[in-house]
Amino acid sequence: MKKFVIASSNEHKIAEFKKMLSPFNIKVVPYKEILKDDFEIEETGTTFAENAKLKAETIAEKTKLPTFADDSGLCIKALNDEPGLFSARYAEDLGGYENAFEKLNERLNGKDSEAYFICTIALTIPNETTHIFEGRCNGFIVFPARGKTGFGYDPIFVPNGMGRTFAEISEEEKNSISHRAFAMEKLVKFLEDEEKKKESELKSKPKSTSKKEMVEEQISTPEPQKEEEVKKESKPKKKPVTQTNPMEEFIDVDVKLDSDENN
After folding, report:
1. Helices (H) and strands (E) in the chain, counts
2. CA dist., res. 136 & res. 128, Å (int)
3. Among positive and negative, which fits the CA dihedral 146, 151, 156, 157?
4. Which of 58, 89, 187, 260 is the most buried (most CB within 10 A)?
5. What is the DSSP letter of 32?
6. Model confidence pLDDT, tens digit, residues 39-83
7. Are 32 and 83 contacting, i.e. CB atoms less than 8 angstroms apart?
């Protein structure tokens, strides 16, 4: 299983990412479980992509592990795409999301409620380029807030074609149509393509023989004999010739005869 660090301390986001990536054999580990230093990354970027990249690269440098981070927000078109990049801070400055809902309702005052959620994910793999993936979910704002699930601005956002707010649908439904889901889909596609590319490169790479294998092969394979040696071995050997005295037989007989006569 692959282990990716998430550069976020938002429990709701961490839970969503874990659920989305579990089918792809990816384990999501919050950076605070690895780094003992208690610190927050200051988001000084001027775009969602810059903030996401800043967070991912900072944590990847410290952990030496593949790290992803997201930056997301609610953009209301009639309010010049506010609260946008400062969505979380907007609610914090007003004392919470319920106060933020009331303030946004006052500011809209019957204007067009068209809006969209945006999520930008940055993936940093140590010693490689940071990759950016963006997802959007278009919809509109409703007041008063509806629903008890979800988090953040979910209770006032209705995705197009749904009829219910993000806070009125199940986690499974939201994770299939949300801005974060669309960005994550692109991230997963990228990882799958990279895996296929590596497999293809391994298959096409010629097999190299190690020095050890070469030595073993030389030991096990007998050295070919020279042609002259083969011919020499194949030529039949002559049997040794025993030399005998051609008169031996007669000499023996003569001896015997002489002996008989003396008896």
Report:
1. 9, 7
2. 26
3. negative
4. 187
5. G
6. 778 888 999 999 999 999 999 999 999 999 999 999 999 999 999
7. no
Helix-helix angle 11-21:179-204, to 10 degrees: 40
Q: Name, in order, each residue with C-beta under 8 angstroms of 170's C-beta and a sequence gap of 6 or more.
A: 149
- Measured CA to CA, the distance from residue 84 to residue 101 in angstroms comes to 14
The one-letter code for the residue type at 259 is S
| Mean predicted lDDT score pLDDT of the chain | 83
Instruction: Copy the structure tokens of residue 211.
Output: 């020095």
User: Which 3 state secondary structure label does DSSP give 90?
Assistant: helix
Contact (Cβ atoms closer than 8 angstroms) between residue 76 and residue 101: no
Q: Which residue from 79, 76, 73 is spatially nearest to 91, judged by alpha carbons?
A: 73
For residue 29, what are the contacts with CB-CB under 8 A and spacing of at least 6? 3, 4, 5, 6
Taking the C-alpha atoms of residue 71 and residue 10, their distance in angstroms, rounded to an integer, is 11
Segment 232-261, tens digit of pLDDT:
555 555 555 555 554 444 434 443 434 444
How far apart, in Å, are the Cα atoms of 23 and each of 67, 138, 195?
A: 18, 26, 16
Q: Whole-angstrom Cα distance, residue 156 to residue 91?
A: 13
Query: Alpha helices, DSSP H only, in 83-154?
Result: 87-93, 97-108
The CA distance from 55 to 122, in Å, is: 8
pTM: 0.74
Q: What pairs with residue 82 in β-bridges?
A: 76
Strand partners, 83: 75
What are the catalytic residues?
Answer: 71
d(CA 66, CA 70): 14
Residue 196 in this model has a pLDDT that exceeds 50: yes
- The number of beta carbons lying within 10 Å of the beta carbon of residue 130 is 18
Looking at residue 253, what is its pLDDT?
A: 40
